[in-house]
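Task: sequence in, structure out. Protein: Protein nucleotidyltransferase YdiU.
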Amino acid sequence: MSTNAFKVEHRYLELPDSFYTRVKPTPLSQPAMVCFNHKLAEQMGFHVKDEAEWAGVGAGVELLEGMDPVAMKYTGHQFGVYNPELGDGRGLLLWETVAPDGTRWDWHLKGAGTTPYSRFGDGRAVLRSTIREYLCSEAMHGLGIPTTRALFMISAKDPVRRESIETAAALMRVAQSHIRFGHFEFAAHHEGPEALKTLLEHVITLHFPHLISLPEEQRHQRWFEEVVERTARLIADWQAVGFCHGVMNSDNMSIIGDTFDYGPYAFLDDFDAGFICNHTDEGGRYAYNRQPQTGFVNCQYLANALLPIMDEDHVRRGLRRYETTYNEHFKNNMRAKLGLEETDDSDMSLIMETFSMLHEHRVDYTRFFRGISNLHRHGNAPVRDLFADRSAADEWLERYEARLKTETRAHDEREYLMRQINPKYILRNYLAQQVIMEAQNGDYAPLKELLKVLENPFDDQPEFEHYAALPPDWGKHLNISCSS
Ligand code: AMP
Ligand code: MG
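Result:
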């Protein structure tokens, strides 16, 4: 195995001991490689000829020289309730590497067995949920939305009990950082100001190097503002693409603003503003239209954790960045989705009316925006056909066409750019479900094909047209189990 093109570091171990526990993975038996992300490996600084060589690492049977696995300790607010008992319950940070281009990568093996933070869990991940995480992190990356990545995944023979007996699997998840808001909550509420400051400086040094030279007060203030801004921008991106995370607990919020921890997530099919993708979230706390507010609440938890070492006014000022950043980024996203270049005072009302109309008529979100990206190429039939009530479509199209008259760009150019932001292909739940069923029968080819399609979601890819179809009736509103 040649891994010599990257440098090994394990800077997380520089944090105080209380931030982690050394744990060896519990081996899985007879591992098979399901999927390996060769492009990502190249980017990380290595090349793999024989994928199978990595199966042992994925199964926790083999550790490479320099790997020093730890379970990270963090806490967090789950559904609004503080839980001091959290931490990596089934994932281990193996090491950190630095690619030739200077990018840092945490290697986190998810499904590696129990740790001191497993509570009642078995430390395992199942094939179904591991495929879901692999697919969605790569789909998000294809869409240009910040996310953790999937390097490879293995399946194993060990049975894992969920609602039924399922197949064990493990994911090598990589990201620039696995530090969560919950790490700060842990430091603040259990370790004291010194540990908190150490954590803060650690994060700045590794992930916000442009702030290092600022004087301390300013450095901390700017850093918090940036975290808030990244979070707001991330959620504005989710809303624009119709992504519902499902478990926006503060332990699932990345400090660098990545989409983090894929569980019962969903991309909207028929637009429903109040859509709840997590069937255990009965109150709809994390419904699609509550995500922007929830992002803010999570920033408030982080803000609270920073009070022991930061000036309260500075923290407040940082929090205020959320709403302005969110609104600006959301508006820019939606204006680009609608192909608007000129500014017009009524644009925000057009955006809000568009959402109400999509909600009222339960229009397929992705096909609608892709359809209006092709109005002058393919005509309005593909858009009208999404409506049971064609007159509602006509009414909206009339208003939209009138607005387009104030634009100066050529139709072709506008629509070309719209197709760079309105994806043709998204990871619909039923598509994930189909490839999971095939994989459970031992066929990984459909999974690999779907991954290939989602790599370029904005391209027409005529040979894969069927992946852009409306979901079949069975595939709408699938009940995605939270047990992963
Ligand atoms: P999640 O809802 O996946 O973000 O997980 C919340 C917490 O439960 C984290 O601390 C996880 O490490 C832990 N956890 C989730 N599933 C398991 C499992 N099968 N075994 C042990 N811990 C788990
Ligand atoms: Mg989690």
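The chain is about 40% helix and 15% strand.
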